[in-house]
């Protein structure tokens, strides 16, 4: 036999090696053990199993003192913000008449402030119209007196070298007439009417425009100012046109001056509105006014 030729130490090693390789595990059959011996697992699978066993290092959490300090700081900042907000709301409420604030909550105070500001804007526009009317009347009276004085001086003295200080006053009065009565309410208008359209009272910037239009847009709220000639049923047509393009009118002020009318409109851009910028809204408003103008001309001709 082959075992007889082995020494005792070699025989012991052979027995230990044979028992470790060929002996099945307690939960494994003999066929599975033979399959495992004939097909050992590849090295890549062993490496993947080794990588899966690795665990991520736990995140270093802040200690309790740092977390508590951060929480208390956030609470103090929020408390200070609420305190300042309440103080500002109290001051705002004290500046308004009681009729504009029905309740003391924040929404009522802010809503009343909006109404009060729009009312002040209307009063300012009305006073500006009255001021312009008085200056125009005063300028006409001064021009009449100056013309009379010039005629008298020309009849008495025909010397062309004489200096006439009243001529400067006449130039100043004529420049007053060429200034728009509501120019301060139009900072950067998208459309500005020509002199011919407004009776030689305005600076021409766009001959194609039929009205002064300025639109400012903040999120979904648009502030629109329109200065145009007065037309029959113009306001009702503007309101209907705004509704057709999904613009809801929240506030509306109307100021008239001779043949002119100034509309100050605060509108909300609804979800279905196709107008996404201030220029687009201004263009749509100008298109509305052009249609109203054409209808008025056709009505006069018929």
TrEMBL record:
Subcellular location: Nucleus
Spans annotated as Disordered: 23-70, 140-173
GO biological process terms on file: guard cell differentiation; regulation of transcription by RNA polymerase II
Biased composition range(s): Basic residues: 50-61
Record SUPFAM superfamilies: HLH, helix-loop-helix DNA-binding domain
Main subcellular location: nucleus
Alphabetized PROSITE patterns for the sequence: BHLH (PS50888)
Record's keyword annotation contains rRNA-binding: no
UniProt domain BHLH: residue ranges: 69-120
Protein name per its UniProtKB record: BHLH domain-containing protein
């Amino acid at each position: 036999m082959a075992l007889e030729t082995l020494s005792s130490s070699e025989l012991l090693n052979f027995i230990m090696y044979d028992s470790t390789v060929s002996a099945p595990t307690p939960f494994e059959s003999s066929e599975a053990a033979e399959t495992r011996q004939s097909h050992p697992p590849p090295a890549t699978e062993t490496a993947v199993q080794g990588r899966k066993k690795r665990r991520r290092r736990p995140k270093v959490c802040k200690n309790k003192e740092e977390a508590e300090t951060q929480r208390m700081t956030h609470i103090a900042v929020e408390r200070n913000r609420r305190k300042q907000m309440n103080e500002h709301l109290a001051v705002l409420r004290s500046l308004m008449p009681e009729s504009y604030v029905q309740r003391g909550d924040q929404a009522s105070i802010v809503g009343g402030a909006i109404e009060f500001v729009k009312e002040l804007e209307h009063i300012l526009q009305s006073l500006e119209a009255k001021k312009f009317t008085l200056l125009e009347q005063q300028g006409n009276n001064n021009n009449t007196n100056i013309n009379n004085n010039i005629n008298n001086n020309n009849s008495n003295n025909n010397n062309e070298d004489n200096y006439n200080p009243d001529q400067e006053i006449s130039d100043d009065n004529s420049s007053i007439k060429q200034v728009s009565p509501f120019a301060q309410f139009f900072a950067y208008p998208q459309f500005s009417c020509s002199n011919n359209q407004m009776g030689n009272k305005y600076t021409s910037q766009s001959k194609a425009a039929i009205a002064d239009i300025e639109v400012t847009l903040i999120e979904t709220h648009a502030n629109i100012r329109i200065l145009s000639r007065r037309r029959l049923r113009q306001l009702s047509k503007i309101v209907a046109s705004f509704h057709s393009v999904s613009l809801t009118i929240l506030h509306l002020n109307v100021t008239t001056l001779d043949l002119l009318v100034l509309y100050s409109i605060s509108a909300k851009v609804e979800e279905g509105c196709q107008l996404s910028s201030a220029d687009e809204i201004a263009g749509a408003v100008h298109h509305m006014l052009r249609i109203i103008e054409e209808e008025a001309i056709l009505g006069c001709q018929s």
